[in-house]
Amino acid sequence: MGIGGATARRLAEDGAHVLIADVEEQAAVSNVQTIRQAGGTAESLLVDIGTSDGVRGMIERAVDLWGRLDIVVNNAYSGGMHGDAVELSEENWDRAMDVGLKAMFRAAKYAVPHMRQAGGGTMINLSSVHGLLVAPGWLVYETVKTAVIGLTRQLAAEYGPDGIRVNAVCPGHIMTERVRPQWDAHPDGLRFFEEQYPVRRVGQPVDIANAIAFLCSDEASFITGQALAVDGGLTLQLQENLGVRLARYVQQHPETWFPY
Q1: What is the pLDDT of residues 47-70, one digit of tens each?
Q2: Over the stretch 231-250, which tens digit does the pLDDT of each residue have?
């Protein structure tokens, strides 16, 4: 679903053979069917990437299917982990770290040998604008997404000599299937969110998928270790100016609904 689903479809359009590894089996199966109906090649695999066996099995399954591994896109995150250091449970912290960060370490651990054998490859790690800037109440999410950028840089330096490029993508607010019902119910809140972006819209999953496809392509062969903000300009703004503009917007639109 969301960014992962759009990315799978976009890479399949470019000719990649795609293995969709997901803990939500039906969503993965449905996306595989969509790709196949469009003439692409895809398989699904039920995986909990919060475990070492799950990630190793995912990599091995891709190689067993198609004989090599060229691309890994690390997109999964264990959601719902709100809270500060006092509020957040250790169990939720550990789960978020396993799925959102350690899984990327595991993916590199098991994928790099196959990419070396293939003569190179590329890995894309999904960070966030929350990896560049922080918001109160999101301790573990901000920590994970910031660490993803550091991991990305380290992997890029380590494996560049092997022809393996590693980059991170930092999306802004993306209109995925999970958040769409909220905005459908509160279009005034969506308009406020759109007002925060210089391009005056939030992102769509395909916006991120297109950036990932570019970073996986030969056109990006000299790009590695980067954290690419795909955020409609959200993070480039001076905060005090943005705050004044939004305050004026709310004065003019007092009916605005706020999700937080």
Answers
A1: 998 899 999 999 999 999 999 999
A2: 999 999 999 999 999 999 99
pLDDT of residue 229: 98
Residue 5 CB: number of other CB atoms within 10 A? 22
Superfamily of domain 2-180+199-235: NAD(P)-binding Rossmann-like Domain (3.40.50.720)
Calpha distance 148→150 (Å, rounded): 5
Q: Is the CB of residue 192 less than 8 Å from the CB of residue 258?
A: yes
Residue 44 has pLDDT above 80, yes or no: yes
β-strand partners of 230: 171
The string of DSSP codes covering the chain is: -HHHHHHHHHHHHTT-EEEEEES-HHHHHHHHHHHHHTT-EEEEEE--TTSHHHHHHHHHHHHHHHS---EEEE--------B-TTTS-HHHHHHHHIIIIIHHHHHHHHHHHHHHHHT-EEEEEE--GGGTS--TTBHHHHHHHHHHHHHHHHHHHHHGGGTEEEEEEEE-SB--TTTHHHHHH-HHHHHHHHHTSTTSS-B-HHHHHHHHHHHHSGGGTT--S-EEEESTTGGGS-HHHHHHHHHHHHHH-TT-----
pLDDT confidence of residue 80: 64
Span 94-113, average pLDDT: 95
- Entry pTM: 0.94
Cβ neighbour number for residue 51 with a 10 Å cutoff: 15
Active site residues: 141
Residue 247 CB neighbour total at 10 angstroms: 10
| CA proximity to 170, closest of 213, 122, 130 | 130
